[in-house]
TrEMBL record, chains A, B:
Coiled coil: none annotated. Belongs to the CSC1 (TC 1.A.17) family. Residues 370-642 form the CSC1/OSCA1-like 7TM region domain. The gene is LOC111460994. It is found in: Membrane. GO terms for cellular component: plasma membrane. Residues 7-176 form the CSC1/OSCA1-like N-terminal transmembrane domain. This is CSC1-like protein At4g02900. Pfam families: PHM7_cyt, RSN1_7TM, RSN1_TM.
Amino acid sequence: MANLQDIGVSATINLLSALAFLVAFALLRLQPINDRVYFPKWYLKGIRGSPRRSGHVHNFVNLDFNMYIRFLNWMPAALKMPEPELIEHAGLDSAVFVRIYLLGLKIFVPVTFLAFAVLVPVNWTGDTLEHAKGLTYSDIDKLSISNIPAASKRFWAHIVMFYVFSFWTYYVLYKEYKLIASMRLRFLAAQKRRPDQFTVLLRNVPLDPDESISKHIEHFFFVNHPDHYLTHQLVYNANYLAKLVEKKKGLQNWLVYYENKYERSPTQRPTTKTGLWGLWGTKVDAIEYYSTELEKLSKEEDKEREKVLSDPDALIPAAFVSFKTRWAAAVCAQTQQSSNPTIWLTEWAPEPRDIFWDNLAIPYVKLALRKLIMAVALFFLTFCFMIPIAFVQSLANIEGIEKVFPFLKPIIEKKVIKSVIQGFLPGIALKIFLILLPRILMAMSQIEGFTSLSALDRRTAEKYHLFILVNVFFGSVVTGTAFQQLQKFLNEPSTEFTKTVGDSIPMKATFFITYIMVDGWAGIAAEILRLVPLVMFHLKNAFLVKTDQDRDQAMDPGCLDFPVSEPRIQLYILLGLVYSVVTPILLPFILVFFAFSYLVYRHQIINVYNQKYESGAAFWPHVHRRVIIGLMIAQLLLMGLFSMREAEQSSACLVALPILTLWVHKFCQGRFESAFVKFPLQDAMVKDTLEKATEPNLDLKAYLKDAYVHPVFKDSSLEQITFIDDDEESNSLVPTKRTSRRSSKFPSEDNSESDA
Amino acid sequence: MANLQDIGVSATINLLSALAFLVAFALLRLQPINDRVYFPKWYLKGIRGSPRRSGHVHNFVNLDFNMYIRFLNWMPAALKMPEPELIEHAGLDSAVFVRIYLLGLKIFVPVTFLAFAVLVPVNWTGDTLEHAKGLTYSDIDKLSISNIPAASKRFWAHIVMFYVFSFWTYYVLYKEYKLIASMRLRFLAAQKRRPDQFTVLLRNVPLDPDESISKHIEHFFFVNHPDHYLTHQLVYNANYLAKLVEKKKGLQNWLVYYENKYERSPTQRPTTKTGLWGLWGTKVDAIEYYSTELEKLSKEEDKEREKVLSDPDALIPAAFVSFKTRWAAAVCAQTQQSSNPTIWLTEWAPEPRDIFWDNLAIPYVKLALRKLIMAVALFFLTFCFMIPIAFVQSLANIEGIEKVFPFLKPIIEKKVIKSVIQGFLPGIALKIFLILLPRILMAMSQIEGFTSLSALDRRTAEKYHLFILVNVFFGSVVTGTAFQQLQKFLNEPSTEFTKTVGDSIPMKATFFITYIMVDGWAGIAAEILRLVPLVMFHLKNAFLVKTDQDRDQAMDPGCLDFPVSEPRIQLYILLGLVYSVVTPILLPFILVFFAFSYLVYRHQIINVYNQKYESGAAFWPHVHRRVIIGLMIAQLLLMGLFSMREAEQSSACLVALPILTLWVHKFCQGRFESAFVKFPLQDAMVKDTLEKATEPNLDLKAYLKDAYVHPVFKDSSLEQITFIDDDEESNSLVPTKRTSRRSSKFPSEDNSESDA
């Protein structure tokens, strides 16, 4: 077991590496050439057009040494923006996300003070370890609950403090839920007119042999919402078209690349090969080749677009139905339309950019089956993920490779390569899996059939939280793989399990302290450096960028990685709650994590991230629930811990806590959750009335006309416009008549009918 | 362990006792004097005015011996009425309730056949018990799974059959859920105009310092449902008034009693004493005394009624809000009104007679607290109910009584009394508790704050189901009290618990067979005899009845005791599922129970019961869920059983079943449950449109005017009218002006305002 000095060394190393990241960040962000990497948000907002040019600033390298001296001044700057302005600037999702770190601080600052004031002295004077002979112990253990003799009266101090901590957590959670619910309501009330306020996502439209889908929808809503129905927008299965558009983008990039090349050295026309990745095949003139390829693809895209728009089979039995008032949309979203609850499903429409288009057309039975399969898959992924990795690892040793590829034998047998393979390959399989994990989980959530990106993110976070809980927390406390834990859990009395886990908790304190420093401190410092986007930007900048506009497109502002970051915070909150009475010395490390993360993420959402959607903090009920789960785990484990220390009575005193926690959860849920899932009619009516008074002549139909068009129809037109601007007008790739035809043809499909 | 012969004897005894009940019933029901006990439903329907008088039938005793010969002909008669007519006659609740027995038959008839065709031969030829030396066994054990040697390949037969049984159960459950959902929808669609179709129950109206509750409600709905709001009915806190009305009824009964007495012997005016129960106090003329008492009470009632109607403090912050169309009511019931989810709560109004008035005014925080307390109380009631009973039992022995009441010593010490106390008292405490249990559970549900009788019934059934499951099923399989089981469950590995329980299941087969015969067969036969209502009716008939109308009031048709009967059926379904592969010989006993119960209850709902409310089979999702719970318990226990028989592999094969069961539940829930809790707008619109076409001049406001008046306001007026008819017109107790004033005064409170 590590002693205080070991921890000190580790802390120094991690602090230094974090500091190195910070210094690197401070230096890099001041270079004008990196401006678009570290301040993309401002470019996207249109506030900053190009790097600030003060007198002393060179075009690529900043030579103003005064600025280097104040290299940490981004920290106060990150805190300076007041919250209302932050919400205005970065959206409610981001503003509330950084509040999760603040929640951690709110819970743990008083807890840390109290724990150090009460529990550390109680533990320090416990004197068990000093008098135990032949036992090696460290200073950290002397500060922990291990220093209290079994069945001691001193445990009452821990019990009382844990009650205090639990009640404090309830209080903070309740206050925060209340605040964020009101923030959300205020945010929604203050929003300007948006298409999703008037629109409902309709799914599982039953097919009618006599009518087209469009007619059928129209008739249904004319009958059942006679005074309120306005129009609807059909959904097309444009997956193949989206693929074509994606492919075209790639070809365009190559064309631009070769054109740039030609421009720089006009003496030699660039050539390329027609085969795979330009490596094989016949040599051709690159610019000509890509131009013709692009032309071909554009034609195919045209045909496909026409096909999608005209082919009735390309229609998905789903639609976006818009109403004349927000009130009517709220009504339709909250009510059941048909007596068969699997058809005519209505839900509040996500905002247009939040929609996950692929999942709009899954019938009920299929959805139920997918959920079943994914639940089973999640179970195996969580508890048995080590099995395939161990299999890969067993393959990836010297003998395995030699068996499969005998011809590689002479190379592998060389000493240097052998040691690399033996030392590196086994670990890399696990590392790759862990890097891919969030994507795997996201793919699983997509299969489950959620229709909006925000819902997908929330669901993925839930899965990742389960994985971290089982494999990081329990996996570290109880040794062995998750599957072995599960077996243990099933084959042991359930009280026994909490006891063994509870008992080994104090011993793992030093491990978790190191974990917090490596994963938390250094990880967050790496986040602010944005190494990958930095490299990517400069690569793009070198090869693809011609104009400032291109440069803006080469920016990758990224966004908050909610499915990964949130479960991590939850792990730290869980650690804090568990160790608050067991080993209070861990708490300051968590405090540093929360404070530092709060700073970094506040800086990032102000200067960098560009959110893909705005859900209005719809994730808060999930955050709340997971903190409650953490609190409950902490309470159960402490009960196990106390009963192992022969303090059965005190353990019994804790029984009320999990029940109380559950009740607090139910209470808060009933009190606030509906603010995140339902849509009060009163608020809708207020906005409707206000709008009617201020804009009596609003043409809502025109406003909503193209709001819910599949992005490939929208993007392509946008792209084409950019294309025209950038390229020579004579380029025949973009027949201008198409653009106009599209915009005239598209609405005809649904609006001419609804006018009828 | 009992052998086949013992079971045969027990079966004979129980069959004979059931037969005795049936014969008694057959004889009693033919006597005209009992006609109102055994056919009250027909009297209430107004189809039967007095006992059938054929030529041979005497006024009190039936002397037509032909009718006695066909004494079992009620059985085919009970089956004759087709289901649609049954629904029309007895309501959907009753018709669906007897379908639960049919569900049992549907599940278990094929299961029984298959089990006897496959499993009984497999078990019989297992040969373990015959070769085991020194083991006593019975024929029943030879037919059970106990006869299969450990780790035998024969277990595969059981596994395959259990899969077949499970899938058959899924299929039947799915089919039945589907059928009953469509029955409910058809039933609701076919219903005539009813007040609850237009009405929403509004609760937790926030208090406004500037406005009365009525004004506040009106303004809110005029703003937020401007085109649809019609009127509302306030709710008064009339608990004290209800008490007065109840007291008055009692006094009236006494008055009638003495008047009857006087009529029969006009020579002597009856006297009574003014003290407690007419046993002490001064002697007075009875008729005069009760007349003046009644007069006094009527005056007090008048004053109280006026006070309730005029005092703003007597208003409860709840109301019944009515809309112009069913569509608007459906919208309001399903949407959230305010951004604060604890005020302006709307839900579909129960039908007027279904309302539980006392619970209409509980604020949110109180409700959450009540639920917490009741959950804890339910836990203790279920697991620790033996503690207070054991305490009472310990008091109720000879020494205990002697200690507390030393003066009773000489009496108690007598041998006869001593043996009675010792043999009888300990048992009676438990018996009284078990009889009171449903009422205790109902009181707990009332405290939880449900607003309708049907919801209370469903909730109580849930509690009773938990109690039966823990204390009857697990209590019989695992010996020891429920609390000991709980400790065992917590201190053993969770797999170990299912193993021990699973292991002891085959041994308990004979016990449960006896239980089915005593509780099931004889209990149902006793149900049809209706001994308590029979006695009560004749007592009332002798002392209180003057006219045929009085006689009708003396009838007590009773109603289906859903909270008690349904959990019992669930116990039998659970037993059938568990023993279907373990001891198939138990299945025929269950079949007899289901078939016999089906007959009896079908007879009862046709001829006897008068339901207090009609919920449209809203209980079916609960029934479905509890069958699923039973199936899951059976699956888990069988896994335990197989793994105890060293058939670990086969046990592992069963793992998929609980997951599948859970999924089937989720699937059915998603598919059908909303038919029981939500209100499709389409159906509402259809009814609205139809009504608009057929009755364009309907005055809905007048129709709804008094629909949701507290029953004390209604009952009293009805009663008064009866009173006037029966009694002399000169009776000054009922000033006729009051009746008229009431009906003119009452609506003014809420309707004049809503006209404004």
